[in-house]
User: Which sequence fits this backbone?
């Protein structure tokens, strides 16, 4: 993505992609009324409904993006763009999170339709990668953007994390999760980082944190009263007013720095419940990090403790 636009202004690699899928697929997921505590259980949702709904979401959002956004910019011959040094790679982690989460939902819907597990893993798990590949193609035809191989690598990483665990363990022992909070940087550059609260949550990478949430009980092959408790490793960044710091940014705010976190989390799908509504909600919301006590290390050498942090 180009440095001239906000990280989430065009197609966010995380919340807006996930949100569009949630709006399109929530009716299908909730109509099934049956989600297992670890994986989505098979039901009687017709495969045609699942396939048709998914196709409408993918095709519809890509067409809408093409008509509503890309037409504002000159169409050019397909070209690439190197954005690997932007936003301290926060946007790349966001791409991985998006393909992981959309792939998890895609497999869940195919499971509901009774599709063979291996097929649902490969086909459903690849939906996020397919969708963002379409976005990258549109980027490559726009003068304001460009096809990014870094984005594609991140997309593949997220899809690979999901499919690899399904094939190897038949469950997700390591989950990619997301959380966000407001920062003061958006006030310094509202056009890029957002002027309203929803825009700031979506655009401002300074407030975003991506998490690898690991379930120790699944590796120990033990089920107990605390089997839903996870250990989470987070990544964030701070001090970013532009995709790459300008001399003015460095003078006013100093050099941007990376943030590494150690925290606790909850695997919502491992919480025992007989409520089908709760199982559905847990499945859909298990991409969000639960606030917990957190230890933070900053690449500038600072240590920070948080009683509660996303």
Assistant:
């Amino acid at each position: 993505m180009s440095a001239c636009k906000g990280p989430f202004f065009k197609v966010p690699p995380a919340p807006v992609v996930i949100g569009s899928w949630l709006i399109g697929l929530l009716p299908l997921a909730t109509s099934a009324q049956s989600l297992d505590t670890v994986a989505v259980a098979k039901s009687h949702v017709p495969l045609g409904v699942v396939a048709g709904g998914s196709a409408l979401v993918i095709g519809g959002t890509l067409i809408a993006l093409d008509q509503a956004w890309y037409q504002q910019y000159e169409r050019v011959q397909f070209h690439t763009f190197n954005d690997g040094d932007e936003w301290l790679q926060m946007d790349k982690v966001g791409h991985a999170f998006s393909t992981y989460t959309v792939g998890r939902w895609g497999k869940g819907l195919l499971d509901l339709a009774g599709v063979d597990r291996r097929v649902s893993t490969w086909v459903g798990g690849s939906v996020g990668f397919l969708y963002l590949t379409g976005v990258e193609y549109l980027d490559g035809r726009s003068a304001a953007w460009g096809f990014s191989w870094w984005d594609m690598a991140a997309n593949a990483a997220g899809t690979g994390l999901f499919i690899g665990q399904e094939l190897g363990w038949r469950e997700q022992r390591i989950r990619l999760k997301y959380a966000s909070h407001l920062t003061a940087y958006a006030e310094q550059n509202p056009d890029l980082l957002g002027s309203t609260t929803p825009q700031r949550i979506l655009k401002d990478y300074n407030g975003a944190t991506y998490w690898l949430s690991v379930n120790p009980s699944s590796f120990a092959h033990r089920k107990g009263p605390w089997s839903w408790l996870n250990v989470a490793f987070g990544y964030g960044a701070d001090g970013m007013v532009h995709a790459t710091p300008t001399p003015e940014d460095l003078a006013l705010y100093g050099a941007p720095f990376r943030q590494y976190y150690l925290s606790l989390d909850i695997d919502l799908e491992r919480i025992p419940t007989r409520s089908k509504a709760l199982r559905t909600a847990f499945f859909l919301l298990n991409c969000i990090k639960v606030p917990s006590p957190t230890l933070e290390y900053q690449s500038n050498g600072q240590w920070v403790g948080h009683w509660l942090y996303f």
In short: The radius of gyration is 20 Å.
